[in-house]
Amino acid sequence: MADLKSTFLKVYSVLKSELLEDPAFEWTDDSRQWVERMLDYNVPGGKLNRGLSVIDSYKLLKEGKELTEEEIFLASSLGWCIEWLQAYFLVLDDIMDNSHTRRGQPCWFRLPKVGLIAANDGIILRNHIPRILRKHFRNKPYYVDLLDLFNEVEFQTASGQMIDLITTIEGEKDLSKYTLSLHRRIVQYKTAYYSFYLSVACALLMSGEQLDNHIDVKNILVDMGIYFQVQDDYLDCFGAPETIGKIGTDIEDFKCSWLVVKALELCNEEQKKALHENYGKPDPANVAKVKALYKELDLQGVFAEYESKSYEKLVTSIEAHPSKAVQAVLKSFLGKIYKRQK
Ligand code: GPP
Ligand code: MG
Ligand code: MG
Ligand code: MG
């Protein structure tokens, strides 16, 4: 594993150098240095689960056959395209969510020299993806499918992000619309496709598969992605900032988080009143009241129950899949996130 990660990181350096050679940055060294610093700050510093999963999944689909150097490079490059996509989303999401820290450091837009230049950096990150794909996959039979996949998943994510954001519009805040089905819709779109389906879809395309033949795999991965975002919502409030690398803002931001949905389901009239009065306010005193209410309702216990039920359900659907190789891919994914603390 450590070895796989170091191989993967070497591919980052190769891709970065290629992108920095772009004639767009020939004019000034400043621009090249800006992009390099921006990439190093935002692309490689996460858990790299999404990226590494492309290589993992591709290996499992090859059922033990040794990968060639070229295959490792290509699977890593696709993995990095997903990490680039994630960096693009996070740079912009942190502006939209008014967040402070990410991966244990200030959010990129919080750096005094950066500010709203971060919005353009997001666009640059996004545009690096088709450049990487063009350079390394143009002659592959699945090139068009790859481009289409990345476009589709980006659209799905932006659509989920939009629903996530418009539920929090000032003056239209309304807790009564926060239900499990709205939550599911938001997280399926904003998280599940890009965080779970995309890695396996890339590996399937590299293996010569048609994605239309793998709708069942997609459905399982979407369910896994929903479970993953419920964990993210939980950690936003109950995770240790030193471990998750970010300080939660969901309560302040009036987010349709799994926690508030559950709280609304479980609370009595008096608790509901307290929730309405304190949810979505920036003052730490209001936030503390919401957190105290979550504890009163034992949302930690409710989450633990949800977590084990989801795990069992996912294992059952994985084991119903006809292919052992696909089962191995899905189980490896699930193993990486079950009971995660970050
Ligand atoms: C996670 O939401 C979703 C994203 C990062 C997708 C963003 C999509 C864009 C089109 C910008 P989150 O806000 O709960 O994540 P985190 O807790 O990491 O801030
Ligand atoms: Mg967000
Ligand atoms: Mg966020
Ligand atoms: Mg979150």
UniProtKB/TrEMBL annotation:
- Show the PROSITE patterns listed in the entry: POLYPRENYL_SYNTHASE_1, POLYPRENYL_SYNTHASE_2
Q: Which InterPro entries match?
A: FPS1-like (IPR039702), Isoprenoid_synthase_dom_sf (IPR008949), Polyprenyl_synt (IPR000092), Polyprenyl_synt_CS (IPR033749)
Q: Which UniProt keywords apply?
A: Cholesterol biosynthesis, Cholesterol metabolism, Isoprene biosynthesis, Lipid biosynthesis, Lipid metabolism, Magnesium, Metal-binding, Steroid biosynthesis, Steroid metabolism, Sterol biosynthesis, Sterol metabolism, Transferase
Pathway membership, UniProt? Isoprenoid biosynthesis; farnesyl diphosphate biosynthesis; farnesyl diphosphate from geranyl diphosphate and isopentenyl diphosphate: step 1/1; Isoprenoid biosynthesis; geranyl diphosphate biosynthesis; geranyl diphosphate from dimethylallyl diphosphate and isopentenyl diphosphate: step 1/1
Q: Which Pfam families match?
A: polyprenyl_synt (PF00348)
One function term, GO molecular function aspect: metal ion binding
Determine the domain of life of the protein's source. Eukaryota
Q: Which GO terms describe its biological process?
A: cholesterol biosynthetic process; farnesyl diphosphate biosynthetic process
GO-annotated cellular components: cytoplasm
Which cofactors does the annotated protein need, by name?
Mg(2+)
Q: Which family does it belong to?
A: Belongs to the FPP/GGPP synthase family.
Function text = Catalyzes the sequential condensation of isopentenyl pyrophosphate with the allylic pyrophosphates, dimethylallyl pyrophosphate, and then with the resultant geranylpyrophosphate to the ultimate product farnesyl pyrophosphate.
Q: What is this protein called?
A: Farnesyl diphosphate synthase
Q: Which organism is it from?
A: Quercus rubra
